[in-house]
Amino acid sequence: MMSHFDGKQIKLEEIHRFPNEPVWMNGRFYWDFLRLLHELKEGLKKIAHLGVEVAGIGLDTWGVDYGLLDKDGQLLSNPVHYRDGRGDGMLEEIEKNISFQEIYQKTGIQYMSFNTLYQLYHDIKYRPHIVAQAESLLFMPDLFCFALTGKKYNEYTEASTSQMLNAFSKEWDMDLLERAELPAHLLQPLIHPGEVWGTLSKEIQEEVGLPAIPVIAVGSHDTASAVAGTPLTSSSSAYLSCGTWSLLGMELDDPMISELSYEHNFTNEGGVEGKIRFLKNITGLWIIQQLKRGWANTNPEIGYAQISQLAKEVTNTEFIIDPNDEVFVAPFDMAAAIQNYCKTHGQEVPKTIGEIARAAYNGIVDQYKEAVLALEEITGQSIDRLHMVGGGIQDQFLCQLTANAIGKTVVTGPIEASVLGNVMMQLKGLGYVQTLEEARQIIMNSFEMKEYKPQA
Question: What is the count of structural domains for the chain?
Answer without folding.
Answer: 2
